[in-house]
Specification:
- By secondary structure, this protein is an alpha/beta fold.
- The protein is built from 16 helices and twelve strands.
- It folds into three domains: 194 residues, Rossmann fold (3-Layer(aba) Sandwich); 88 residues, N-(1-d-carboxylethyl)-l-norvaline Dehydrogenase, domain 2 (Orthogonal Bundle); 88 residues, Rossmann fold.
- The protein has an eight-stranded mixed sheet with strand order 3-2-1-4-5-6-7-8, with helices on both faces. Strands 11-10-9-12 form a four-stranded parallel sheet.
- Helix 15 links the parallel strand 10 and strand 11.
- Helix 5 packs parallel to helix 6, helix 9 packs across helix 11 and helix 9 packs across helix 12.
Length: 386
């Protein structure tokens, strides 16, 4: 079994950490945020993710996971250091690498024992970032390291399942031996593996999320067209699925995609392309279509009810999807604000995300059950798939 350091105990870092711990590895988790660190140390994840709390408590009880404040406290016995810090969007859509840069600097400063280690970037970063940001810092400190990039493919609501039993593993590395060492950590993985170079591994993550965003946008647009032509989308979807070249998954129409990944990552790759003199017209169209797709739900209400002023509308599902409390980029926010601007009385329900949503759109009356929300409602929008 290996000893691993994971820097950053957000949804990716913590879920990855408890999954490694469940496989018998020793995990040292670094979290500089005091509130988050204290919660994790008590066995309470600072976010909802199915199964993570139980797995965290087990890992802490078995001493397979230890939570510390600084890299200095976590580095000694580790042979692998995973950097799982955030790469949020800047106002112009480009990827912010400041947290990754600071994590690499902290690592270089703490690394005083001369021990050889593999540094694994787990954060979602644009192609070339690991070489551009992390490598110069470690080389400048003259450290005995090898670099790897191991993107995550965790679905919110199913992240622990995906971390324990990944459907594929992608590792980019300086050399084949380093890539094999990282892959070997995934002891329970049965799926295929791609061992490649750093830039390719970084690109695979963006290619995946961009393609899935395209599929969602296509399903939304096709559903709009089916409605215009008086055709059943469900039947068309069944017909599409009969073609062996087309995977029918992710072709479920709705009010557009949200969350912490698809909007951020598609904007980042579009902005990154623009900086390099390239264009991404398909992805730009996907982003534009996604910004207005939620209006179809409101238009459908208006087609049935007419003027929405004074109408009671139930908004069911406030997170960006089911089985999560994550409201980042949720379509429920623009839906609610647009309904309110049209004079509707909006009530909402979500089993997990109600408190967070209420802070963003306090004008929405939060109710305690689906039945309460539907009682007296003139119309309903089912926004999330729980």
């Amino acid at each position: 079994m290996a000893t691993l350091t994971i820097v950053g105990l957000g949804p990716v870092g913590l879920t990855t950490g408890v999954a490694f711990a469940a496989q018998g590895h020793r995990v040292l988790g670094v979290e500089i945020d005091a509130d988050r660190r204290e919660q994790v140390a008590r066995g309470k994840p600072p976010f909802y993710e199915k199964g993570v709390e139980r797995a965290l408590k087990t890992a802490l009880r078995q001493k397979h996971l230890t939570v510390v404040e600084t890299i200095d406290e976590a580095l000694g016995p580790s042979g692998f250091v995973f950097l799982a810090v955030g790469t949020p969007p800047r106002p112009d859509g480009t990827m912010e690498d400041a947290f990754l840069r600071e994590a690499a600097k902290s690592l270089a400063s703490a690394w005083q024992d001369g021990k050889r280690r593999i540094v694994v970037v787990k954060s979602t970063v644009l192609p070339g970032t690991t070489d551009r940001v992390v490598r110069p810092i470690l080389e400048g400190a003259r450290l005995p390291f090898r670099l790897a990039m191991n993107p995550e493919f965790l679905r919110e609501g199913h992240a622990l399942e995906d971390a324990l039993r990944p459907d594929r593993i992608v590792v980019g590395a300086d050399d084949a031996a380093t890539a094999r060492s990282v892959k070997a950590l995934y002891r329970s993985a049965k799926g295929p593996a791609l061992l490649t170079d750093l830039k390719t591994a970084e690109a695979v993550k963006y290619a995946t999320n961009s393609f899935l965003a395209v599929k969602v946008a296509f399903a939304d647009e096709l559903a709009n067209l089916c409605q215009a032509f008086g055709v059943s989308y469900d039947e068309v979807h069944r017909g599409l699925g009969l073609d062996p070249r087309i995977n029918p998954r992710f072709l479920v129409p709705g009010v557009g995609f949200g969350g912490s990944c698809f909007p951020k990552d598609v904007r980042a790759i579009v902005a990154g392309a623009r900086q390099r003199g390239a264009s991404a017209p398909i992805l730009e169209a996907v982003l534009a279509q996604n910004e207005v797709q939620y209006m179809r739900a409101i238009e459908m209400l208006e087609e049935e009810l007419g003027d929405l002023r004074g109408r009671r509308i139930a908004l069911l599902g406030l997170a960006f999807k089911g089985d999560t409390d994550d409201i980042r980029e949720t379509r429920a926010v623009p839906i609610a604000r647009t309904l309110l601007s049209k004079g509707a009385l909006v009530v909402g329900y979500d089993p997990l995300a109600a408190a967070a949503f209420s802070k963003v759109v306090p004008e929405v009356k939060i109710l305690g059950s689906v039945k309460e929300a539907l009682t007296g409602a003139d119309g309903t929008i089912l926004q999330a798939d729980w």
